[in-house]
Design brief:
Elements: H1 2-12, H2 16-24, H3 37-49, E1 52-56, E2 58-59, E3 62-63, H4 66-78, E4 86-90, H5 95-105, E5 112-115, E6 118-121, H6 123-132, H7 134-141
Helix pairs in contact: 4-6
Length: 155
């Protein structure tokens, strides 16, 4: 019985020569390129031809992850026209776009928001900007939302 226990635990342990060989490999031997020329063109065309672009999981009316849902809720609360002002891409429908957008922006997570051709950030940054009032100022400046009309303007 003891023999079986010790033999099975040895079989699960990698041999020391494998560990030594792995340690000898450089930490960054090469980078895998995911961004094809056609995907890069798709991304660049989208962010230059639209004031507000979101690369997300799902669609604005049916987000498929909590972070994408949160960004859509933030934009809705801010007053963005979700059917007119927003151009969205469902990265779940296109694996090349899913990996390519991360390489394009050098940002590892989805969703990704672009306003007027500039990468703004993901869910955490959008939430911080929303809470600080910075997002409203940016959306107003870019003409993506209308200023609120005061109910009792001073005469």
């Amino acid at each position: 019985m003891n023999f079986l226990r010790s033999a099975s635990s040895l079989a699960l342990r990698p041999s020391s020569h494998i560990l030594t060989r792995r340690a000898a490999l450089p930490a960054t031997s090469f980078a895998v390129r995911h961004l094809s020329d056609s995907t890069k063109k798709t991304i660049e065309d989208a962010i230059t031809q639209n004031k507000l672009v979101v690369f997300m999981k799902g669609t604005p009316h049916a987000p498929q992850c909590g972070f994408s849902r949160a960004v859509m809720q933030i934009l809705t609360v801010q007053g963005v026209d979700m059917d007119g002002a927003l151009k969205s891409f469902n990265i779940l429908a296109d694996e090349e776009l899913r990996s390519g957008i991360k390489e394009y922006s050098s940002w590892p997570t989805i969703p990704q928001v672009y306003i007027n051709g500039e990468f703004v950030g993901g869910c955490d940054i959008m939430l911080n900007m929303h809470q600080s009032g910075e997002l409203e100022k940016l959306l107003l400046k870019e003409g993506l939302i209308e200023p609120e009309v005061e109910e009792n303007p001073r005469a």
